[in-house]
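Hi C.,

You asked whether I'd gotten around to modeling the 112-residue construct. I have! Everything is below, sequence then structure, no commentary in between.
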Amino acid sequence: MRFRQNLARQVNIDLDEMKGFGGDKAWSNVKDEPLVLLLSHSDCDGEIVQAHCEPLRNRLIEIKMGLYDYSAQSFEKGQKWEMDYYKFMYYLQRWIDGLESAINLGEPVEFM
């Protein structure tokens, strides 16, 4: 959950306002954001279809590159995150790698 909260924060989405996270705002109200596919998805079942993997991977790469620009120094100077910068970057890269594998294999990303 903390990874999702921090990921959502990168695109100015407050998960506490969203359906499924205690709020009443519908995900359909979030326009033109590939991360909705990941943020709104169940942790334990279903899949992200192969056609959505590339846009999602590209968006995660954009976020990662922006965080490199932001740098760990800014994080250490008071950015309030619920998980540390390096752990977040590690999970972000794992998602990028997993999506890249799905793209290369022509398969969906399955949640189990």
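If it helps when you're writing up: The chain is about 55% helix and 5% strand.

Thanks,
B.
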